[in-house]
Amino acid sequence: MANNRTFSPSLQAKIDTLMSRRPKVKLGDISFDSPLLLAPMSSICTAPYRLLMEELGAGGTVSELVSCHGINYKNEKTVKMLEIHPREKNIGLQLFGEDGTAMAEAAKVAQEREPKFIDINMGCPVRKVVSKGGGSALMKDTSKLGKYFNQMKSAIEVPLTIKIRTGWDDDSINAQEVIHIAKEEGVEFVAIHGRTRTQAYKGLANWDLLETIAQTSPLPIIGNGDLHSWQMTQKRLMATRCQALMLGRGPLRNPFIFLESFLKEDDDIQFTPSDYLEVIERFRDYLEEYTDRERTVLITLRKNIVWMAAGFPNVTHFRNAMFQTPDIEETMNVTREYFDAIKDGHKKIDHNQVFMAGGHG
Ligand SMILES: Cc1cc2nc3c(=O)[nH]c(=O)nc-3n(C[C@H](O)[C@H](O)[C@H](O)COP(=O)(O)O)c2cc1C
């Protein structure tokens, strides 16, 4: 990925202004450029998307979950998931697996890619992962956790972090216990999605609980869940006891959320449809540098364009037209036409409507 596409001076000026307002944070030994981080998302947080988000203000990013067994078997597709772009600065690679020995082995391999930290997925609710004892199932039997963490910690030199849920179900909320075990074993910070495993993506993230946990936690806490808009993020950022916040679905529909969260009341800064188009053009470049599989680029590009266009005028018509195009070039032509046509349009998203109620954490 050698491409060095530049943004227009007007977009770059907005980015620079908001970028400069971000406070740096240190979580344990790990420094980030902002307290707002991109959450790990499978099939989304590959190097091109993570780099784009860092350039648009994410203080740090985490890869999608990567199977420790896939790494240890040298599965080609899995190994590709470990790829880090040289310009990515604050990246963590997330691994999942039920077995401490296999995880430690895989973590050594992941470490060779020089991530800033290695993260353990302890929140995935998906049956395929949980039934083997990985993801959120790790929170079920805490008696094994000390050894599990220790095996990984002793295998690597980079910091070890974890991403958990609040517990398995309402009757077994045990995030605090897990955090204490993690602290004992030298884990650096804990990101918490404020739902239980049973809840999956239903209901709302329990921010009261996250704040209570953050208040007494012996480790830095990154709060996560339902921060869908920059207004929600800004409000939470001002009041939270968490040391940082993690955003997953929000950035998919608003790639400027990490920056807009630092808007001030009297600012005259708005990201326009043509700014969105520039971001899409850059993303296309990054995808094409990342893989020569045209189909992968096309599918990834389309999916992200649809998300980014959400809330703009006449989006349904545009979406239908785009999905009828045969290739990347045509997809981009239709996209350019659309964003040119709505150049004075505003984005309006109803955050009460459920968006992507499913994922691996
Ligand atoms: C499509 C999708 C994929 C996800 N994949 C992962 C993953 O690989 N690892 C992980 O820890 N969490 C994963 N998650 C969970 C998110 O990191 C985050 O905890 C969750 O979406 C709540 O945050 P949000 O409301 O800001 O989206 C995923 C979520 C979604 C929507």
Automatic annotation (TrEMBL):
Pfam hit, one: Dus
Reaction catalysed by this enzyme: a 5,6-dihydrouridine in tRNA + NADP(+) = a uridine in tRNA + NADPH + H(+); a 5,6-dihydrouridine in tRNA + NAD(+) = a uridine in tRNA + NADH + H(+)
CDD domains xrefs: DUS_like_FMN (cd02801)
InterPro entries: Aldolase_TIM, DUS-like_FMN-bd, DUS_fam, tRNA-dHydroUridine_Synthase_C, tRNA_hU_synthase_CS
Enzyme class: oxidoreductase
Functional note: Catalyzes the synthesis of 5,6-dihydrouridine (D), a modified base found in the D-loop of most tRNAs, via the reduction of the C5-C6 double bond in target uridines.
Record protein name field: tRNA-dihydrouridine synthase
Origin species: Halobacteriovorax vibrionivorans
